[in-house]
Design goal:
Layout (H helix, E strand, L loop, with lengths): L1 E6 L10 E4 L12 E6 L2 E11 L14 E2 L8 H14 L3 H6 L14 E8 L17 H13 L2 E2 H7 L2 H9 L3 E8 L19 H11 L3 E7 L5 H14 L3 E5 L6 H12 L3 E4 L5 H13 L4 E4 L11 E7 L16 H12 L2 E6 L4 H9 L3 E5 L10 E6 H6 L8 H12 L3 E5 L9 E3 L16 E3 L4 E3 L6 E3 L12 E3 L4 H11 L5 E4 L9 H10 L5 E4 L12 E6 L13 H13 L10 E6 L5 H7 L3 H15 L6 E9 L2 H21 L4 E14 L2 E10 L22 H14 L6 E6 L6
Parallel strand pairs: 9-14, 9-15, 10-12, 10-13, 11-12, 13-14, 16-26, 17-24, 17-25, 23-24, 25-26
Antiparallel strand pairs: 1-2, 1-4, 3-4, 3-5, 6-7, 6-8, 18-22, 19-20, 20-21, 27-29, 27-30, 28-29
Helix pairs in contact: 1-10, 6-7, 16-17, 19-20
């Protein structure tokens, strides 16, 4: 018997199947197992993808498997098929896709089941008075036996901590105590106290949406305003799936949202819910993954990577805040969560639900083409109106002599909020104190030595940080170019907002939530719990506070520097700004108190703010869709981006130039398929010491991925569908490479920088 194995090495030259002989002692091995196998003079881990009786190679020369790393398969057959899909769709190496299906620490045995000794009194001594079998002066041993008889048992580590370790050891030697090794679960979020879920009666709109979803497969876009009760629809549908003996996956975009959603799900489904995301410890992540694999947990909740949860017989997949760009993986392996979820939903014949108050333009467009079914929740669950939004023209503030961070209107509203004993959330999508440091005399801007980006000043540590490579530098006292001491700090960040608010509200309690304050484990949960308890009246944060959170006492939301995302050189700039503004505004007035929003901008008449102020998503969508149609951007094209990077620009050119020349020739042969093709430096020219060049392509509507198999006219021998065109792009860019040059291709990337 022979096994076809993918070795766990990320190298293009070994991205293929290798045959190994299966010794008799490992005949239980089948596809999905991890094994140890000899490779190139060493033993490496690998994944079994097929078992066969014969090999096409000389069987005498085929080496045997060294060891089976587990006693059961850890990759499901469905995930094997998913690996094939991802490999072809995204041009990924097989090993990279298979790694996604396992906790990373499983590789090289960096994490295993945690086992501890559980101690009980031996059956013949259970319930017997210790005085009958212990010496009169053995008081310590007596105490241990009495405790265990009452408690029923305890872990050895706890006994040694609370009683005499010597007494415990002597009792074990006498066989009075029995110790058995048992697996111990490392449970995340132990601080979250589960409560009995209240019996929630759905509104007519919620019930209609839930019943439609439960009626069968397909993809549903649940468009509900902030506070409309989308979560209750999700939970109702998950409950129906579990009742039918199936499982479910619930995805959220931010780790900061996971504890709140986890509590909601655990209150409803108890210990049958498991959580998966990168913020857990290695042990917690492994144990939660294993509970899902073994079926002891049937609901997976988590961020993007939870879409790969090892659940069988899926009955529902939910992607909450579906518009969020975090659902697109920007690092290797690159993938789009929606497409992975759609594959799994189709494999299991189950519905997929995309929920948002501000759906992506592409998703909403699919409801028009019939690919998705549109479900609406137009009203807040409490029948309260959406918060009233005031748009403040910051140009007028400057003309009136106000050069500060806050407008007069915002401070008046904040005063009223704090004085009334209510809470406020202040959103600015930039962390740090100042976004750049510049010399007033010569204009020199301090940049990272390894990345082509300006350094950000962080006042708490008195350092300059690069938000790409995380490098830190000393703050300047003088310009390194001209020696001038006149250093200007640039645009405001969360740290500076927090500092200024603390000056104004010394007793209110100011909390800050951004990447800097949430680096430690459970930091998200601790900050949110403190705010929920009222320890802080004002919460300052980046986009991680802008969506999903539900705090009943929040009556005011301030949106500072709202134009930050509006002026990015990105076709999605207006869409992202509308989403951030609408989502941020939706945090106010969610319960019994009316909410207000103050939005500060230097472009008050921009259509984004007009539509956001009126919470008019559909008008925004129509305008944005028309712009995309005229300019030829998604959903009316597919963007393909090939990025080359390396330390040596000359060597990059040797790969980049021939690839671009061949793509130009290919585009000329397939003019109907290409709207745009150009090679250039990336907007961020250098990251972590590597120079970066890109080839940007836009493929025509007739070659869109939905109609991946829709024919393009081929009377002149042109390619016949987008799938073939993209595969050809993969082939051209892939063959022009070098050991010292990294190349990857992205489809509709979230970030074009």
């Amino acid at each position: 018997m022979f096994a076809e194995i993918i070795v766990d090495i990320t190298n293009g030259s070994v991205d293929r199947v290798f045959d190994y002989r299966v010794p008799p002692e490992f005949e239980f091995v089948k596809p999905g197992y991890r094994v140890l196998a000899p490779f190139n003079g060493r033993e490496v881990e690998g994944y079994v993808i097929n078992i066969k009786d014969k090999s096409e190679y000389d069987e005498k020369k085929i080496k045997p498997i060294v060891k089976a790393l587990e006693l059961e398969p850890v990759i499901l057959p469905e995930m094997m098929r998913l690996s094939d899909f991802m490999r072809e769709k995204y041009n990924l190496r097989r090993a990279d896709t298979l790694r996604l299906f396992l906790p990373s620490e499983m590789r090289k045995s960096r994490v295993k089941e945690l086992k501890q000794y559980y101690v009980t009194v031996a059956p013949e001594y259970t319930g017997v008075n210790p005085e009958t079998f212990l010496k009169k002066n053995a008081q310590s041993q007596y105490d241990v036996v009495m405790y265990l008889n009452e408690a029923g048992g305890a872990f050895l580590s706890d006994l040694n901590q609370n009683f005499s370790a010597s007494a415990v050891r002597q009792l074990r030697t006498k066989n009075i105590l029995v110790a058995e090794e048992t697996a111990v679960r490392r449970a995340p979020y132990k601080k979250i106290i589960s409560e009995t879920a209240k019996n929630v009666e759905l509104t007519a709109a919620q019930n209609a949406a839930a019943e439609r979803i439960k009626s069968g497969g397909g993809t549903y876009l649940l468009h509900g305003v902030t506070g409309s009760g989308k979560t209750e629809v999700y939970l109702n549908c998950i409950s129906a799936a579990l009742t039918a003996g199936k499982t479910a996956i619930l995805l959220v975009p931010e780790i900061s949202l996971t504890p709140q959603m986890f509590k909601n799900v655990r209150d409803r489904f108890g210990d049958g819910a498991a959580i998966l995301h990168s913020g857990l410890s290695a042990g917690e992540r492994f144990d939660e993954w294993r509970r899902l694999l073994t079926g002891s947990a049937r609901v997976a909740i988590g961020a993007r990577s939870a879409v790969f949860a090892p659940l069988q017989n899926l009955g529902l997949i939910v992607i909450d805040e579906e518009h969020d760009s975090s659902y697109i993986s920007e690092n290797n392996p690159r993938y789009f969560t929606h497409e992975i979820a759609a594959f799994r939903a189709k494999e299991n014949g189950c519905p997929m639900v995309l929920g948002s108050a501000t759906p992506s333009v592409e998703s909403y467009y699919k409801t028009e083409t019939g690919e998705y079914a549109l479900l609406k929740l137009p009203d807040r669950i409490n029948k309260k109106p959406l918060p009233e939004m005031s748009v403040v023209d910051m140009r007028k503030e400057v003309m009136a002599g106000n050069y500060g961070i806050f407008s007069g209107a915002f401070l008046r509203e904040l005063d009223a909020c704090v004085n009334a004993g209510k809470q406020a959330m202040v959103f600015i999508n930039r962390r740090g104190h100042s976004s750049f440091v510049m010399c007033r005399a010569c204009g020199f801007t301090v940049k990272c030595a390894s990345c082509d980006v300006a350094l950000v000043y962080h006042s708490e540590d008195e350092v300059l940080k690069c938000h790409y490579c995380d490098a830190a530098y000393h703050m300047l006292s003088a310009c390194p170019e001209c020696g001038s001491p006149h250093i200007r700090l640039g645009n405001t960040g969360t740290q500076k907002v927090e500092t200024e608010l603390k000056k104004l509200y010394t007793r209110a309690g100011i909390l800050r939530m951004d990447n800097d304050t949430t680096r430690t484990k459970d930091a998200h949960l601790e900050i949110l719990e403190r705010f929920a308890r009222g320890e802080g009246r004002i919460l300052v944060g980046t986009q991680m506070i802008a969506k999903g959170h539900d705090f009943p006492n929040v009556t005011l939301v301030g949106i500072l520097d709202a134009d930050l995302s509006l002026h990015f050189t990105d076709y999605k700039a207006a869409e992202r700004t509308f989403q951030l503004v609408t989502q941020s505004a939706g945090r106010a007035g969610r319960q019994d108190f009316a909410g207000r929003v103050v939005l500060q901008t230097y472009a008050p008449h921009h259509y984004v703010y007009t539509f956001a102020r009126n919470n008019d998503y559909e008008s925004f969508y129509k305008k944005e869709l028309n712009i995309r149609r005229v300019t030829g951007f998604p959903p009316f094209s597919t963007i393909v981006r090939a990025v080359y990077s390396g330390e040596d620009e000359m060597e990059i050119g040797k790969c980049f130039s021939p690839a671009y020349a061949e793509l130009e020739a290919f585009a000329k042969e397939n003019k109907d398929a290409f709207i745009y093709l150009k090679g250039m430096r990336c907007p961020v020219k250098k990251i972590m010491g590597d120079y970066r060049f890109q080839i940007l392509m836009r493929l025509a509507p007739c070659a869109l991925c939905k109609a991946q198999y829709v024919q393009i006219t081929d009377d002149k021998g042109q390619m016949t569908n987008t799938d073939e065109i993209i595969q050809k792009v993969y082939a051209i860019t892939g063959k022009n490479k070098s050991r010292n040059v990294t190349m990857f291709v992205e489809l509709n990337p979230a970030n074009l920088n």
